[in-house]
Amino acid sequence: MRRVRIFAFIRVLISPIVRLYNLFLAFKHEQIINQAGTPQTCMLKRMIHDQLGLDVDIVEDTGLPNDFIVKVSSQQLDKERQLVALVNKYKQAGKSFSLNNSAVVYTQTWGGFICEQQIMSQTWGGFICEQAGKRLNTITANSIHEGNQFEITVQPTYSPVTIQIVVGIRNSLYGNAYTTIITYSNDTSYPDEQLLTVEYEAGDLVTDMHLVVESDDNYDYKLITNITN
Q: Which domain holds residue 211?
């Protein structure tokens, strides 16, 4: 009886040492596995199963953006985080992966109406040459029969300008026709209104007035005529 008691007492005293030794053996075994770990699919699956108790499936992905997919079914989020850390530790450098946990399902219901807003953007494909539009300059030309002369007055809306107005005069007695050209100048000394006096013979008539130049660098021109014979 004395020996049994002494032996039991000694076992109680050395039990912490036995426990520490068993922990050391478990740590040694774990480190051997860790050191032998490689990025091979079979080795990754074994290490995940041994350390986390999870059965996973590793399949190849397209590489855009991930190189492989780790498929697992687990509702323990803490183990999911450990799984990600373990794969990051042993996967090949430069490779990326995604985790597919079939046990986690996300659902969403809308609580009200949603206002959708579309944003559109535009970029220029090249340089753009901007050109300002020209102002419309109205030219008023009046032909008045005074005695033996035709008085033709020309009044522009904006002056000075460079413009030519052709005045056609027909002689009804002889059937001949000739033209007189009124020329405006950009010279600022010109008055706003020009007067042209045309000598005529019996039977002469002013039959037409029209523009020779319809635009210049500054204006587009429009002619309004009033012919009185």
A: 136-228
